[in-house]
Amino acid sequence: MSTDLLTNGSDVRGTVAAYRILNLIGRGGMGAVYRVQRLADGTIWALKEMRPLEEVSRAEASENRELFVQEGQLLGSLEHPALPVLAEAFEWHARPVLVMEYVPGHSLEAMLTRAAAPMPEQQALGYAIQLADVLHYLHTRPTPVIYRDLKPPNAIVTPEGIVKLLDFGVARLHKRHKTKDTVAMGSAGYAPPEQYGSGQTDARSDVYALGATLLHLLTNLPPVPLSTPTAGSIVALNRSVAASTEQVVIRAMQLSADQRFQSAHELGEALRRCYRGAYDDPYRRAPAPPPRIPPASSAAETRAQPVVRGDAPTEAAPSRCPQCRHVIKPQARFCAHCGARLAKGGPVVVRIISPRGVAQQQLDRLPASLGRRDPARQHFPDIDLAERDRGLVSRSHARIERQNGHLVIIDVGSKNGTRVNGTVLVAQQAHPLRTGDRVRIGEVEIEVVSS
């Protein structure tokens, strides 16, 4: 297999869009990562290509390809602000390729190298809390995902202060009744004993790795393989570290999984107790990534095959009476079937644009609630964004209604806020909505098609 890199300015055509190579970001033993521009809309992405540095055996090449493909499958099934969005996976010149969200920033490793000193305790705790949160998300999927390779080089801190996990090449789906991993993988110093083949990895393996990563941040020294720090050893190297924080690291790095924190959530709660002051959740500042699928109008010329991800725009359904559900005529004031008085103005139609694609929805009745469904609480909003957002939309986020015949939107006290044409709404205050206005909620944009 040729080891020549893709050249700057060359184009790579996927199944959803075409991409132009801008520059090489980095290269590892099994592949190269490039910064690319999607030709359809000009957005910037990262393209990861499987391209070994040297020839390998057929068996090793097959295993590497399997891990590469698995990484794409895992990323495509996950949605969290701390994980890169996968745009598409395909083959280019017989090599597997992944196109994912481009994450600007610096790795935790690079930050330590630049500082040439241990990281201050509170800064390190803030990053560790984020990592515990995303590990908890991975571990609580219907089929738990064990990351297995947490270490400073694989965690990127964005300009907004968000820690993103990269490189899911050795992550695995947890098999509850299996006693041993098929392949022992990980990085020395960050991998617990069971990851060397002595047992099956589970959530507690990632707990160990997070403890080892925090140890590295607090001391600026890589952890010693299969070695638990002792009381006083961290404080001696970093005077900003409290004894309580040191004890959290020691417990997380116990060689026996039964003696560690039993979940990333439990570890995260312990880290929060060590954090002084109010913890500022950086996810509130997370910018939305570009849409997975380019806008239909600009993608038509570049798409090699039909779009296979996301919803295609749909025609608005006929307007119906909110009482009897019979079809009503446009601009009708009364329902011809049941006689019910209809709201002033025609039906409200919105277009929902998200990383999942584009869809159109007619609001059959007002007020209409916007948010994220919660079946456990019997909460089902009229505009349900649960499948279109990665956790930034609140359960009860906003409400669209008419006041004195005019369409308005009200943020009902959401956690991450609502914008209309770039203006941040004041909670509980009505803001006018007109045809063509764009509402931004998390990474979802809602355009008013008719009002």
What does this structure look like?
- Helix 3 (121-139) runs antiparallel to helix 4 (203-219), helix 3 (121-139) runs antiparallel to helix 6 and helix 5 (243-252) runs antiparallel to helix 6 (264-274).
- Residues 177-184 and 297-318 have low confidence and may be disordered.
- The protein is built from seven helices and 22 strands.
- It has three domains: 11-101, 2-Layer Sandwich (Phosphorylase Kinase, domain 1), CATH 3.30.200; 106-285, Transferase(Phosphotransferase) domain 1 (Transferase(Phosphotransferase), domain 1); 312-450, Tumour Suppressor Smad4, CATH 2.60.200.20.
- Helix content is 20%, strand content 24%.
- By secondary structure, the protein is of the alpha+beta class.
Terminal-residue CA separation: 58 Å
SSE arrangement, N to C: EEEEHEEEHHEEEEHHHHEEEEEEEEEEE
How many helices? The count is: 7
**At CATH's second level, what is the architecture of the largest domain?**
Orthogonal Bundle
Structural class by sheet pairing and helices: alpha+beta
Looking at CATH, the homologous superfamily of the largest domain is: Transferase(Phosphotransferase) domain 1
The level-1 CATH class of the largest domain: Mainly Alpha
Inertia-based shape: globular
Query: What summary fits the major beta sheet?
Result: 6 strands, antiparallel
* Mean pLDDT score: 83
| Rg over CA atoms | 25 Å
Task: Output the CATH topology of the largest domain.
Answer: Transferase(Phosphotransferase), domain 1
Number of domains: 3
β-strand percent reads 15-25%
The tally of strands reads 22
